[in-house]
Design goal:
Pfam families: HpaB, HpaB_N. InterPro entries: Acyl-CoA_Oxase/DH_mid-dom_sf, AcylCo_DH-like_C, AcylCoA_DH/oxidase_NM_dom_sf, HpaB/PvcC/4-BUDH, HpaB/PvcC/4-BUDH_C, HpaB/PvcC/4-BUDH_N. This is 4-hydroxyphenylacetate 3-hydroxylase family protein. With 484 residues, this protein is of the alpha+beta class. It folds into 2 domains: 276 residues, Butyryl-CoA Dehydrogenase, subunit A, domain 2 (Beta Barrel), CATH 2.40.110; 191 residues, Up-down Bundle (Butyryl-CoA Dehydrogenase, subunit A, domain 3), CATH 1.20.140.10. It is built from 17 helices and 14 strands. It has a 6-stranded mixed β-sheet, with no helix packed on it. A hairpin with a 2-residue loop joins strand 6 and strand 7. The longest helix is centred in the middle third of the chain and has 38 residues. It is globular, with a radius of gyration of 23 Å. It starts with 5 loop residues before the first helix and ends with a helix. The mean pLDDT is 97. It binds iron/sulfur cluster (SF4) and fe (iii) ion. Iron/sulfur cluster (SF4) binds next to helix 5, helix 7 and helix 15.
Length: 484
């Protein structure tokens, strides 16, 4: 088997015995939970699209490990063209879900771990690269969804991992055995973990020699004993729990959820370990993963932005003002911002180069510029969407009132915009904009744009490192004819 259908993916998840909690209760069947299901549907889209001939070129690739056709979400990029296709695939998935489809974190982790383990083995004669190749062949063959897990809770940000009052605030090795290691700790903000078959853990930052036990990378199935997922709250999340809720949810079929994921004495066998104590390589792994994920946002956020811009344009039409010049100008501005993000995603991909292991790495400077823009532009796009939508987006009566026998007639009468447009359509579009700007999807489109793949300051540090200010000064001196 190399490609699963969407339905097979859902059934494969049903077989997992995940330990998931939401709102203080254990979730017996995450697949059927109304809060989790839309997020599962978003991942399912990555399987469904791969089955469609028109998307085959974007959604699938030929594995360099097995030579077989695989889903691009499990692929090691073999060229700059592959990197470009990755971004295009993410834009497509964003357009089809208007949500986070979660599978990119694993893809970005594969590519970072592959090239880093190659370099560790060269120096230390370890076996991590072979371990990882074997693991990835398994993932590709089964077409699994793997959650990349990087961000530790971090406790006191001013202290290194081994100096924390509670040593578990960074995930660490607590026992070394002949057949593997036992780890304890947690990973925060784990997008899509409860929709994944496997979790691939990486360190969260560069490590010093005294943090040896924290320099650990490995992969285990998500239902391994000791793993607990505690789903995060999202603004407006319980609307999904309301009976027959549809319009009010904003995006009924798709979404994304995150979880605090706890590893309480989890055993990892030797052949699933990809870094174990080589502290100087933790930074390389983090930098490469973050670079890929900063590229990723130049695709996924753009696809979601396409939906939001379309929704704003429809809201203007339904409000009766599609020809107002200021509305047209705001829509142009939204498109300009959105395409600027895309341009950055494509640019850092086109400038990709081969790593020592042979897979392709994006241009780090341009990927960081991409993500820095992502920390800002979606906020401006949302602001403009809210401007166009009008205040009704946040004061509109509920779907239940719209359907109520007593007051429904008033809602229908007074929520009319353009007479030819059914009130229900106007409500649907306004709720979609609400969902993306301040509802459940705002987690992915706004705050994740700020903090996902590293907070803004992390990119500024990389830009200062990669920006080559010295060369720029030399250029200025040459033009100004300054000799030293
Ligand atoms: Fe993929 Fe974007 Fe979600 Fe990250 S935020 S997993 S890049 S869809
Ligand atoms: Fe993310």
């Amino acid at each position: 088997m190399s490609l699963m259908t969407g339905e097979e993916y859902v059934e494969s998840l049903r077989k997992l015995k995940l330990n998931v909690y939401y709102l203080g209760k254990k979730v017996e069947s995450p697949v059927d939970n109304p809060v989790i299901r839309p997020s599962l549907n978003s991942v399912k889209m990555t399987y469904d699209l791969a089955q469609q001939p028109e998307y085959e070129d974007l959604m699938t690739a030929k594995s360099n490990i097995t030579g077989k056709k695989v889903n691009r979400f499990t692929h090691l990029h073999q060229s700059a063209e592959d990197l470009v296709k990755k971004v295009k695939m993410q834009r497509l998935c964003g357009q089809k879900t208007a949500a986070c489809f979660q599978r990119c974190v694993g893809m970005d982790a594969f590519n970072a771990v592959y090239s880093t383990t190659f370099e560790i083995d060269k120096q230390y004669n370890t076996n991590y690269f072979e371990n990882f190749k074997k693991y990835l062949a398994y993932v590709q063959d089964k077409d699994l969804t793997v959650d990349g897990a990087m961000t530790d809770p971090k406790g006191d940000r001013g202290l290194s991992p081994s100096k924390q009052v509670d040593p578990d605030l960074y995930l660490r090795v607590v026992e070394r055995r002949p057949d593997g290691v036992v780890v304890r700790g947690a990973k925060a903000h784990q997008t899509g973990i409860c929709n994944s078959h496997e979790v691939l853990v990486m360190p969260t930052q560069a490590m010093k020699p005294e943090d040896k036990d924290y320099a650990i990378s490995f992969a285990v199935p998500t239902d391994t004993k000791g793993i607990t997922m505690i789903i995060g709250r999202q603004s407006c999340d319980t609307r999904k729990l309301e009976k027959d809720a549809d319009i009010d949810v904003g995006n009924k079929n798709f979404g994304g959820v995150e979880a605090l994921t706890v590893f309480d004495n989890v055993f990892v066998p030797n052949d699933r370990i990809f870094l174990n104590g080589e502290t100087e390589y933790a930074g390389m792994l983090v930098e490469r993963f973050a670079g890929y994920h900063r590229q990723s946002y130049g695709g996924c956020k753009v696809g979601v932005g396409d939906v939001l811009i379309g929704a704003a344009a429809l809201a203007a039409e339904y409000n009766g003002v599609p020809r107002a010049s200021h509305i047209k100008d705001k829509l142009i501005e939204m498109m300009h911002l959105n395409e600027t993000l895309y341009a950055c995603g494509i640019a850092c991909s086109s400038e990709g180069y081969p790593t020592k292991a042979g897979n392709y790495q994006i241009d780090l400077l341009l990927a960081n510029v991409c993500k820095q823009n992502v920390t800002r532009f979606p906020y401006e796009i949302v602001r403009l969407a809210e401007d166009i939508a009008g205040g009704l987006m946040v004061t509109m009566p509920s779907e239940k009132d719209y359907k109520n026998r007593e007051v429904g007639k008033y809602v229908k009468k007074y929520l009319v915009g353009t007479a030819s447009v059914p009130v229900e359509n106007r409500m649907k579009i306004l709720r979609l904009i609400e969902n993306l700007s301040l509802g459940t999807a705002a987690v992915g489109y706004r705050t994740e744009s700020m903090h996902g793949a590293g907070s803004p300051q992390a990119q500024r540090i990389m830009i200062s490192r990669q920006g080559n200010l010295g060369q720029k000064k030399s250029l200025a001196k040459a033009i100004a004819r300054i000799e030293e």
